[in-house]
């Protein structure tokens, strides 16, 4: 691969058992950009993120994934995480019985460390205020912030956000948008999956659209926002 490509999927295929889900996806992500990964329900967005993070399911059967010249396709999920790929899943997975701070500290146990607690609390004042509160008792928006903060507590080169705005009030969405902007300023590259395509495109430099496990569009966010036909066909906005 050419050395200036930061992250790349090459003809990636993945299955849940017999179900063929990711059907030959290729895409490139530039360093420091926000890429919106869009598409209708069931298009394969979550499956693509899980494949990138090297989750056991769906199982990748073909293709290559490269991060700064490292073969992510040859890695297990813990190795991908150690290489700097951090997935913030839709269900957030806050650990019960642990405080906000314990959730963050646990994330720093494995190498490599990312933001310090002080750095995290300066970017997430709500979490600072609630550091001794049990994580699962936070509001939905605060749990989303904790899930993102936990990813940042490890070294992040590529942040994968799966529907970070889902179920959240507009004012909380705005707070998380500011955090995504902060993350971008710090040089981290992000792939954001969102049903709220307009909100995602507002943040994004570029966008891709998946349709039944295949790429239907790749281009700039501005280009997609300007193309009513594409938006109607694949995004219903
Ligand atoms: N664990 C699983 N086992 C079998 N099939 C699955 C599994 N998870 C997802 N699928 C199927 O894979 C396809 C893609 O699902 P995926 O969750 O990747 O879509 P998505 O684009 O994230 O959708 P949504 O917008 O609803 O989150 C769907 O047809 C779904 O039913
Ligand atoms: Mg999904």
UniProtKB/TrEMBL annotation:
Give an example GO molecular function: ATP binding
* One Pfam short name: ABC_tran
- State any GO BP term from the record: L-amino acid transport
Domain ABC transporter, residue spans: 7-237
What SUPFAM superfamilies is this protein classified in? P-loop containing nucleoside triphosphate hydrolases
Domain of life, per UniProt, equals Bacteria
Identify the PROSITE patterns for this entry.
ABC_TRANSPORTER_1, ABC_TRANSPORTER_2
Q: Which UniProt keywords apply?
A: Amino-acid transport, ATP-binding, Nucleotide-binding, Transport
Similarity annotation: Belongs to the ABC transporter superfamily.
Protein's name according to its UniProt entry: ABC transporter ATP-binding protein
